[in-house]
Amino acid sequence: MSGQYGGETLPGAGANLHPPHHTLLHHPHLPHHPQLCTEEDFCKDSFSFGVDEDEEDEDEEDMARALDTDKPRILLMGLRRSGKSSIQKVVFHKMSPSETLFLESTNKIYKDDISSSSFVQFQIWDFPGQVDFFDPTFDYEMIFRGTGALIFVIDAQDDYMEALGRLHLTVSRAYRVNPHINFEVFVHKVDGLSDDHKIETQRDVHQRANDDLTDAGLDQLHLSFYLTSIYDHSIFEAFSKVVQKLIPQLPTLENLLNIFISNSGIEKVFLFDVLSKIYVATDSSPVDMQSYELCCDMIDMVIDVSSIYGLKEDGSGSAYDKDSLAIIKLNNTTVLYLKEVTKFLTLVCILREESFERKGLIDYNFHCLRKAIHEVFEVTVVRRNCVEDELYSPEVKAPLLNGTPRGPVWPAAFLGRGGAFKQADNTSASGVSG
Asked: Do β-strands 122-126 and 147-155 pair in parallel, antiparallel, or remain unpaired?
């Protein structure tokens, strides 16, 4: 997509010219990493950058193969009318919060496969609030055995004592079947509470839930708590934290983003899933909610404008493609810079105007980062090909990752936290060769 944002013309891909030769910058955790330039290196030569189209198509095919497998499960549980279905519709189906008022209560398990237009590859199972775990027809062992995360939703505007009892029953049963599940508690509908009441409610829910686990001898079971609402970005922030725990490559991606911002004069960077606005990774600096909301709004703006002006006359094409790019200059000397990484991912940078004057340096380093992100998942594709026969062998039991067997079930791009990190360390992640 090309367009006009913030008074600047947005170009498409650059020319395919050779980059400069420069000294590699080494990082203690990534011996082989993108050949990112500092400003001093950049000033030694002038250049343009670009992406070879054939090479880019191969990268996209590898990414598609890496993600084209069965998906792990995220379970949405809670009492009736606690807001489970509304969360799913707002986050993954772009439903406006006001429309969720007309959703009917869930009366059966609803399975939603988040894969066709998203980098986030998993199934969401939305459970009706009246599920009875003591019902012999309910095979809870089968369900919990293949689960990566269990999200329990508690309505903060209602009497939550019954919900706490159901939470204890649910997580204790699930933990005994699969101790690798990540247990997440959304203290939901907090938009109607004052700030003090929000904190007090979260503290009370946290204390009571953990006391129940201690009394049951389940001290080792860890619960994570989030204050959420579909009327602001808190639900996207919470889901981002949940999904990040299921991405084994997260340390590698964070290291790459840290290297990128340290050499480009950028203050904050997010790697977003375009469809859901979940940020897959960010650098190691703290996340400010206001900055996160600005980035989410920018993604919405780019997709909305592209849907109107970026498509062909016959309506074909995509609102988000390899040419998607946007620059927004705010009145507080801050610049938001968005660039496409893959057809599912986008990078949003927050930086100062004086730093954006070195846009050529930023673009070159982004090009290297983009190549490195592709290589992280390409390495895993190769790794899957090497171990796939062994994992499928009946004599070998596949190891578990967050309750999900590696290889046949977990997306190949997410195979093995340690293995992927080691592969990335031993593989050159340079974006371009000079």
From this structure: unpaired
Tell me the pLDDT tens digit for each residue of 168-189.
Answer: 999 998 999 999 999 999 999 9
Task: Quote the radius of gyration of the chain (alpha carbons, Å).
Answer: 23
Q: Residue 29: what are its φ and ψ, rounded to 5°?
A: -95, -15
3-state secondary structure of 153: strand
First to last CA, the chain: 28
Pairing of strands 147-155, 182-188: parallel
In DSSP terms, which residues pair with 75 in a beta bridge? Answer: 125, 150
User: Which two three-digit tokens encode residue 320?
Assistant: 């988000």
Answer yes or no: are the C-beta atoms of 389 and 373 closer than 8 Å.
no
Distance CA 415, CA 219 (A): 29
Apex 148 CA angle, 144 and 151, nearest 5: 80
8 Å CB contact between 285 and 262: no
Question: pLDDT tens-digit profile of 147-157?
Answer: 999 999 999 99
Here the tokens at position 424 are 């990335």
Q: Which long-range contacts (CB under 8 A, 24 or more apart) does 20-28 make?
A: 20/44, 20/45, 20/46, 20/47, 20/434, 21/45, 21/434, 22/434, 25/259, 25/263, 27/255, 27/259
Q: What is the mean pLDDT of residues 410-424?
A: 30
Write down the mean pLDDT value for the chain. Answer: 75
- Phi/psi for 278 (5° steps) reads -75, 130
DSSP string, 18-34: PPPP-PPPPBTTBSS--
**Do residues 261 and 268 lie in contact, with contact meaning Cβ atoms separated by under 8 Å?**
yes
Q: What is the pTM of this model?
A: 0.71
Residue 93 Cα distances to 81, 119, 274, angstroms? 19, 14, 12
